[in-house]
Design goal:
Layout lengths: L1 H20 L19 E6 L4 E2 L5 E10 L4 E8 L2 E6 L7 E10 L2 E11 L4 E11 L1 H7 L3 E3 L15 E3 L3 E6 L2 E5 L5 E5 L8 E8 L8 E7 L6 H4 L4 E8 L2 E9 L4 E5 L5 E2 L7 E7 L3 E6 L2 E7 L10 E4 L17 E8 L5 H8 L3
Parallel strand pairs: 2-8
Antiparallel strand pairs: 1-3, 3-6, 4-5, 4-7, 7-8, 9-24, 10-13, 11-12, 12-24, 13-23, 14-20, 14-24, 15-16, 15-23, 16-17, 17-18, 17-19, 20-21, 21-22
């Protein structure tokens, strides 16, 4: 068997040698790449304009591509006059892809990329952009703002909340500190200055999975009325309760003669086991009400506007003391960045606030 294998190898070798001698196999020859017709092309994909960020100093992505018709010689990248990188070795001699992530503050910035090819042709691409924080501008338009950064103070009025029970202030919120709920605990504020024809509330919740009860109040402005059915004809109540084994969020509001439910069903359910921050927004006007979860409209219906009669208290993270008949009491979840507006927030504004997370 070994002798047979050796014979086969010898025969194949003679065949290849003969093929080369007879020019049956083409020789490898150099192909002329042609004339260098143009300089490198620089394409910047990020930033694609002004950069909107939720904090004054944050990371900005820089992404670009350089291509040449023949061969690249060098590429250099500068940001605000500081060299980020310089390259003269390329795996693909006609193409280079670059990416950076740089911490930048608010204001004007200049990105400059210079690419040169082997023929000496050079292309300079300059991108002028601004880093802005319209999220902060939008937050500053709120008439009420609880940031929970070390205190229970409304940042607009500088008024501190009335603290009931033993809530606490934690870390790891969407923008600094956060409210941490506890049994029989919540905050209240004077609500007389929050009775607007149009009303929007935006906030983040990290819904607890360990609370003994399957329901809680979140944000309530309701009158003090011994007749529970009559009390729901005024103000609003935003709360959560069990729905399909998850937590389903609902809005109830009264126009003075009756109350109306805004229940998104399965679309308004959140899984507490995910331990993630979730963005909630509800808006009420003289024509309708809407509920959003993480920027998605989960419920919308017509409404003739809130009647604020007797609604002089805002309860935060509980239905108590005025919406307690169905046991929507203290919420032991975490809350952050509670904002109230005297107008209806647009979807674009809701999406912008959602970037805080």
């Amino acid at each position: 068997m070994k002798t047979y294998s050796k014979i086969v190898i010898v025969v194949l070798s003679l065949f290849v040698l003969n093929a080369c001698e007879q020019s049956y196999i083409d020789e490898i020859s150099k192909v002329d790449p042609g004339t260098d017709e143009s300089g490198p092309v620089v394409t910047v994909t990020s930033p694609a304009g002004d950069v909107n960020a939720p904090s004054d100093v944050s990371e900005v992505s820089i992404q670009f591509e350089v291509a040449d018709d023949i061969e690249l010689k060098s590429v250099s990248v500068q940001l605000n006059g500081t060299l980020l990188g310089s390259y003269d070795q390329f795996k693909d001699y006609r193409r280079f892809i670059g990416a950076y992530a740089e911490e930048l503050g608010l204001g004007d910035h200049v990105l400059e990329i210079v690419a040169t090819d082997m023929a000496g042709k050079s292309t300079t691409q300059t991108i002028n952009f601004k880093k802005i924080n319209t999220i902060r501008d939008l937050m500053n338009e709120a008439v009420f703002h609880m940031a929970f950064n070390g205190n229970y103070v409304d940042e607009v009025s500088s008024v501190a909340a009335t603290v009931v029970g033993t809530p606490s202030l934690g870390t790891g919120g969407v923008d600094g500190g956060c409210y941490v709920g506890a049994p029989d605990s919540y905050l209240t504020f004077d609500g007389t200055g929050l009775q607007f024809p149009e009303f929007s509330a935006s906030f983040f919740l990290n819904v607890t999975a360990t609370q003994a009860t399957d329901r809680a109040g979140v944000l309530v402005m309701s009158p003090e009325n011994p007749n529970f059915d009559n009390s729901r004809k005024f103000g609003f109540r935003f709360f959560r309760e069990n729905g399909g084994g998850l937590q389903q969020f609902k809005l109830n509001a009264g126009n003075g003669t009756s109350d109306k439910w805004f229940d998104g069903g399965a679309a308004a359910r959140v899984n507490p086991a995910t331990t993630e921050w979730v963005h909630f927004v509800f808006t009420i006007s003289a024509t309708g009400a809407k509920v959003y979860i993480d920027g998605v409209l989960v419920k919308e219906d017509t409404f003739s506007g809130v009647d604020w009669t007797g609604c002089d208290m805002l309860s935060i993270m509980s239905g108590a003391p005025r919406f307690a008949n169905w046991n929507h009491l203290s919420d032991e979840s975490k809350m952050d960045e509670l904002l109230i507006y005297d107008r209806v927030l647009t979807l674009a504004e809701i999406d912008l606030l959602g970037l805080l997370n």
